[in-house]
Amino acid sequence: MSMVRDLALADEGGRKIAFAGRRMPVLSALVDRFAETKPFVGQRIAACLHVTTETANMCRALVAGGAELSLCASNPLSTKDDVAAAIQRDIGAEVFAIHGCDRDTFYRQVQGVLDVRPTVVVDDGADLTTTIHNDYPQLLDDIIGGTEVTSTGVLRIRNMATDGALRYPVLPTNDAATKHLFDNRYGTGQNTIDGILRATNVLIAGSTFVVIGYGWCGRGVAARARGMGARVIVTEVDPIRALEAKLDGFEVMPMMDAAERGDVFVTVTGNRDAITLDHMRRMRDGAILANSGHFDVEIAVADLTDAAVERRELRPNCVEYVLPSGPGIILLAEGRLVGQSAAEAHPAEVMDMTFATQALALQYLVANAGRLQPGIVEIPRAVEDEVARAKLTAYGVRIDELSPGQQQYLTDWRVGT
């Protein structure tokens, strides 16, 4: 049985899904194609994703393609209850997602999608994949493969593959250029700022804005903050990324130094303890902490909670913790994904490319069932090119093509100076 807050919310959710769909032309074209070709007939797809309007449009594509689809949330605060209701009622997927649920309910939702005995796994953070391997190995024989859409999830999947634990092929959607160059950089950059503004209404211009981690998501956050007038500091552990941040014009320093100078702090590392209690003790009174990594481990929330002598809810998704030494630390969205929890998630325009890439990767996976070996299977470049060309066409942009002579030159080693 599905788990949604209230099916009566479906009308409102349906309007939002339709509005997002109008800005997702590549995925909309795939809905029409899949409705004719039915590439997913006979497949039981278990998906663990942020339950948003953009996700709903990918669900529409998979169901149009003949899939039996079950969907659970990949984050309890990112679920939009009206959207979940509309996916259940109007799109035809079985949905297990309730906004703000506790941890036990969250994993009951994961169990709900696994009850279909999936043949295909669509993951965002690797919770389904790790749960299957750890707790439900009896399901592995039916699974032909899966996809993983986020940076943190791909890291977990790669670690499984390195350990020899991954028992089916997984296509890392996040590694596709049509995902991380746009979704991570422009989507995370925009929705992180959006979440901070909705939770605090703080003025970004003139603030000192600390970005912890300079991967594609960190690049996007730093660029958006600078564009709004902030003085941006970057902290990193990777010397190449730190050097890139320096040459991009940002100040680079250790986190312990940045802690004393920042007004707003955003973690985008994919790792735990990017902001520790020791860092917080050095911060100014009123420092704002937000996380834009997938899991809520990047800020030491438990340590902050234990150390605080007072807790005050200032606004929705905005709680102040007063430390014994005096500073009040303002934590947004419980340390969870701030752009998903306090705002509207990624814009539809970038998720159009992410979910089109995901849908075509799933089509490739199903078409090659039994021929792909367990482990990481890279998404074919042809899939990325198809998505990029379709997006350019939707924007009304034309580009050049190589002439036969240029093509020959690029493949010929004999021609030199």
UniProtKB/TrEMBL annotation:
Ranges where the S-adenosyl-L-homocysteine hydrolase NAD binding domain occurs: 184-345
A matching Pfam family: AdoHcyase_NAD
Cofactor(s), by name: NAD(+)
GO molecular function: adenosylhomocysteinase activity
Entry-linked InterPro entries: Adenosylhomocyst_ase-like_sf, Adenosylhomocysteinase-like, Ado_hCys_hydrolase_NAD-bd, NAD(P)-bd_dom_sf, S-Ado-L-homoCys_hydrolase_CS
Binding site for substrate: T52, D124, K179, D183
Main EC class the enzyme belongs to: hydrolase
Its EC number(s): 3.13.2.1
SMART domains: AdoHcyase, AdoHcyase_NAD
GO CC aspect terms: cytosol
Cofactor note: Binds 1 NAD(+) per subunit.
Cellular compartments annotated: Cytoplasm
Catalysed conversion reaction: S-adenosyl-L-homocysteine + H2O = L-homocysteine + adenosine
Keywords linked to the UniProt accession: Cytoplasm, Hydrolase, NAD, One-carbon metabolism
Role according to the record: May play a key role in the regulation of the intracellular concentration of adenosylhomocysteine.
UniProt-listed PANTHER family: ADENOSYLHOMOCYSTEINASE
Family of this protein: Belongs to the adenosylhomocysteinase family.
This protein's name: Adenosylhomocysteinase
Source species of the chain: Actinoplanes teichomyceticus
Gene that specifies this protein: ahcY
